[in-house]
Batch of 2 targets.
Target 1
Amino acid sequence: MSGPKDFPRPGQRLKTGARDSMLRVDQAGEYGATRIYAGQLAILGDRHPAARAIHHMAAQEERHRAFFDTMIAERRVRPTLLQPFWTVAGFALGAVTAAMGPDAAMACTAAVETEIDNHYQEQVDALGDSDPVLADAIRDFQAEEVEHREHAIAAGAENVLGYPVLSGLIRLGCKVAIAAAKRI
């Protein structure tokens, strides 16, 4: 998770390195999200009642990822070196939680989206009006991530046995992934 030393206070100037870090971690996170949904769908299948919602969320995550892919290329930012890890880890997280049942898959979504909401808010606050294109996109994506979390909770995320523990572990994993992708 980003902290005070990673981003300036609102009103302070954002350094180019911090903006590059934002793009790197956001692209990695959106890629990871597409892999989580791919893992969930691999287990639940297209005919499962949750599949339609998962496909919808996955399509939105793909749109987010495509935006960050473009920004990374246009702004010549080095992507994370951890992408091969996210390929496997994201898919595994989605598959394992889906294998635990649809409520656990939704618990995964709720936990991930909670951390992403917090992460995106920190970025919007740090950007202020210094980069309206990036800030507007993050706000748009953040709203969709909140919708994903709300859908997951309404679909039974909190019904899974041990929800607080499962959610806490996934959120901790997200924080570690965010910190790693910023730097590596």
Target 2
Amino acid sequence: MLSLIERTAPLDKLAAVRAAPYDPVRSLYRALLFFDLVAILILAVGIAEFLYFEPPGQGTGVKATIVGVYQYDPATRTTIGPDRSTFLRTEQFAAVVDWTSLHQDITVDARWYDSFEAIVGRVGPGTPGQLAGEAIVPVGVPAGLKHNLPGQYVFVVERLDNGVPVEVLARRIVLVERE
């Protein structure tokens, strides 16, 4: 039994076994590197999305003419009164676009967006010549409701390329008040 004890190393000779020193900066550095990589990935996706929806060289400098936004009578399909920027929920309204102010070789459409960015009225797509008979673009009342929802409505005339909007030609903002 004594020979077994003599063969074991004394406790003071454990200095040859080293413990790895704990470095708190190393884990923080690795966390920062991870977040940097995530940020670069998000930036790359954002740039790719921007280039897809706003391709370089696609701007033509063409501007559409929105004559105005007026109260709308759906029974006669005509506009009433002066150009306005605010309406009550009970009033229906429509934008009037001068399609003759645009080049005839482009594809355009006009859309109304409500506060939830849902399309609530639309004309097109087509060439300005094809849309000439649809100068009045009314806002549609949501299904199941009697009046428009309160909030901000945006009317946009866009140029399309292969069915994708690539340029905003005109924009108008209207406020629908609660009453």
